[in-house]
Please model this.
Amino acid sequence: MKTMRADKKMDRKVLWSRVWTGSIIAALAAAIGIFAVMLQMEKKMLSEYERGGIYVASREIPKGERITSRNYRDYLCLKEVDKGVIPATALAEPGQLEGLIARVSIAEGTLLTTGMFEEQQEIFARMEEPVIAGFKADDLYQVAGGVLRAGDRIHIYTVSESGIAHLIWREIFVEQVFDSAGNAIGGGDSLSSAQRVNVYLDAGDVEQFYTELARGTLRVVKVCE
Model:
């Protein structure tokens, strides 16, 4: 009898020992699982808040302003932000900045993307030899109001002796405008009157342009955007 009781006590001890060991292993496995989950969550949270660089407008960029290696620091600064807010078309490298022209006025603090600018080469794409031609507002009736600004596009018409207008050049890019004193007018200036205007033309069109200008037959229409 004593031997049987002793065996039963021994079996209980072995059973409890096994249960205890199993509980420890289970608890350890659960702890490892929880740690792995927390580690993945932390990794995901860190990746969500990973930082990246993007150029930001440090001041207002007027419409038509040309960005170059000389002046980009006047308008742009590189800023570190959460990668999640950086679009695929972001301006993030210095090599992307040369020869960009603002399509619209860009407010200070704006995250900059390629769609906000056009490349100078886009303007020259259909020209064999691009040049800058200038004229006075007095030469063209429609420009006398001084509404043109850098970055605008114009259609140029000629009016025949019979009074019929014909389109000669379309979407000519306005490179820069000046007031009566010869001072450049910025895109953000809505008060000054443009008295002199520079536009991009193909060299092959310059002779006709100035001939028609001298005759007083040219008319300008501003393209609305």
